[in-house]
Amino acid sequence: MVASPAPVLDLVAEVPVARTVTVADLADFMDELTTYHASYAPYFRPDQRAWAVFYLRGLLTADVPRKNIEAMVLRLLGAGPAADRQVRAAQYFISEGKWADAAVLAAHQRLVDATLGEADGVLIIDGSDVPKQGRHSVGVARQWCGATGKRDNCQAGVYLGYASRQGYALLDRRLYLPPAWFTDASRDRWQACGIPDDTVFQTKHELATALVEGVMSQRRVPAQWVACDEGFGNDPALLDQIAAHDLWYLAEVPCNTLVWPLAEPDGTARARPQRWVPPRRPRGRGRPPQAERLHPASPPRVRVDAWAAQVPADRWQRYRILEGSKGPLVAEFLTVRAVQGRDGLPGPEGWLVVRRTLPEAGEEPVAKYYLSTAPADTPERALVRVSGLRWPIEACFTEGKSEVGLDHYEVRTWRGWHHHMTLVILAHCFLMRLVLRLNQREGGL
Questions:
Q1: How far is CA 38 from CA 35, 41, 49, 334, 394, in A?
Q2: Distance between CA atoms of residues 239 and 228, nearest Å
């Protein structure tokens, strides 16, 4: 007899729905945009406030192919003798204007808390790249570009998002400066782009650490989890920094990651690895050992994919984790307690989570692997829910680029890049808040 598949557990109600409002739906909500901007007005000088409203309005409503400054000015303010002067004024506001990004984003994060905040909210780390021609835009270099799927001339940003059952939003951003920008040959570009003199090289992982620390140090949004893809999950230093903030991470890791599972594939218990300091050698020869080592009685580490491949079919549980554009997304999951390695020694204990697509005729299932520091009493469905909450930041990027001009900027300076991204984050959050308002008006649909 062939065993019937396990029942599918439904988690769709525990994840946010994709946003369906576009800029075309905004015609009747410009008054709300004015009210929305008023909460940020104190962080701009009086002469800057009108340009801040203009830029938000342009990102949200200007029906032009690219929402760069000149196109938005001509579309919203009109062509004419004063157009050139208005373009220059708007460019100065974004590229050179001295207004406090940090204060604006702090107010934004408090608004996200009021709108979406939940005690078990999820912080999401990810990067987004924008192809750029030439070599004069700040941070541009030949590097891996996610937008084109190859090494390309681009700017790379690191972003922090937030997701709860209510919705999702971006919280903060950092521009990545490649090593080539820290050479003597790049000093002229450095000066031309207005990069602060005290800027030091930071890897993308270090930028991600700074983003998490910035949010958690002020406790502006409630969060219990951090989710990230393999590009960030493969860095133990980043994961340990996240754990130091009393956050539980669920980090995707490569299939060849080595761990000590605390159970065999059939579910029987497996010995726990131990650290030890070997005893002094007989007759006191040589210096006594001081460094910890792996106890010789410890079991060997195993690759996560090798361990999962041996798990019997009846131990996998199916979950419906979200409602996709092509129908419900159902996947099989497996969880086991496991000990991570740190420099070859036992490190933090947590969970190994394996997620794989359903087997289809003629195709092998595709698996993803995650490590988590969530406590031992964490329900499996909580781990599964968080594994499905990395897509909101991808939605933020997709919506940001298609609706509010995230990648449409044509500024070259350090300040201009960060100012543009700050206002894109505010514009996208306005759309998310509008979705919630419309849903309430339509009876919570």
A1: 5, 5, 9, 48, 29
A2: 10
The predicted model scores a pTM of 0.91
Query: Does the residue 245 lie in any domain?
Result: no
| Cα–Cα distance for residue pair 399/404, rounded to 1 Å | 7
Name the nearest CA neighbour of 19 among 116, 108, 109, 106: 116
CA distance 198 to 409: 25
CA distances from 199 to 49, 157, 176, 287 (A): 29, 16, 11, 45
Give the model confidence (pLDDT) of 33-82 as tens digits.
Answer: 888 989 999 999 999 999 999 999 999 887 888 999 999 999 988 887 88
Q: Say yes or no: 367 and 413 in one domain.
A: no
CB atoms within 10 A of CB 140: 23
H runs (alpha helix) in 1-134: 30-38, 46-61, 69-76, 83-95, 101-116
Together in a domain, 209 and 89: yes
- Is the domain of 262 the same as that of 361? yes
Distance of alpha carbon 384 from alpha carbon 386, whole angstroms = 6
- C-alpha dihedral over 127, 132, 136, 140, to 10 degrees? 30
Same domain, 211 and 358: no
Rounded Cα–Cα distance for residues 118 and 223 (Å): 7
| Confidence class for position 405, pLDDT limits 50, 70, 90 | very high
Cβ pair 41, 49 in contact under 8 A = yes
Tokens of 84: 């050139």
Tokens linked to 29? 């909500």
Helix or strand holding residue 267 (H, E): none
Q: Cβ distance 162 to 225 under 8 Å? A: no
Query: Are residues 45 and 162 located together in one domain of the fold?
Result: yes
For residue 239, what are its two tokens? 């994961």
**Cβ atoms of residues 163 and 121 within 8 Å:** yes
Distances (CA, A) of 312 to 15, 77, 267, 301, 306: 29, 65, 9, 20, 13
Rounded Cα–Cα distance for residues 47 and 42 (Å) = 12
Q: Taking a C-beta distance cutoff of 8 angstroms, is the pair 50, 31 a contact?
A: no
Short-list 43, 40, 78, 74, CA closest to 56: 40
| Coil vs helix vs strand at 105 | helix
CB atoms within 10 A of CB 81: 6
Domain count across the chain? 2
pLDDT tens across 141-170, in order?
Answer: 999 999 999 999 999 999 999 999 999 999
